[in-house]
Amino acid sequence: MIASSVVTSGCTPIDPDELPGVYRNEETGGEVVLDSDGTFLVTGVSSDESLGGGGGAPADFSGRWEFVDSETMSDFVYLTVDDDGLGKIGGLQLYPNGRGEVKFRPDPDGPPSLVLTKVDDP
Q1: Do the beta carbons of residue 64 and residue 52 sit within 8 Å?
Q2: What is the pLDDT of residues 20-72, one digit of tens each?
Q3: What CA–CA distance (Å, rounded) separates 20 from 16?
Q4: Is the pTM of this model over 0.70?
Q5: CA 43 to CA 58: how far, in whole Å?
Q6: Which residues, 6 or more positions from 120, have their beta carbon under 8 angstroms from its beta carbon?
């Protein structure tokens, strides 16, 4: 399910084994928890931040995650959202940068809509 080798995304290597943890945006309070068992929990992230539109209040959702070593674009973490988590949305992508950050980037060619930094103490 989760790749276990070190891969390169741009110039910074991404080690999927280092991805589990708590990521937070101090400004918005949004948080993403990637558990080592392949599950995730997102709290306080609006659809504007995660989906790039739609507005609305911050949402909480959960599901399963996996690291995708992409041959054609940046490597990413695919979040498969549980039923009823975001309505018709089945999945989202997070882009790790190898420096303790993950980014929601609804448009892979555009700027990130929300950057979350790994925290040492949840």
Answers
A1: no
A2: 999 999 998 999 999 999 999 999 987 666 665 555 678 888 999 999 987 77
A3: 8
A4: yes
A5: 7
A6: none
CA-to-CA separations, 115 to 10, 23, 43, in angstroms, rounded: 17, 9, 14
d(CA 60, CA 67): 21
Here the tokens at position 115 are 């950057």
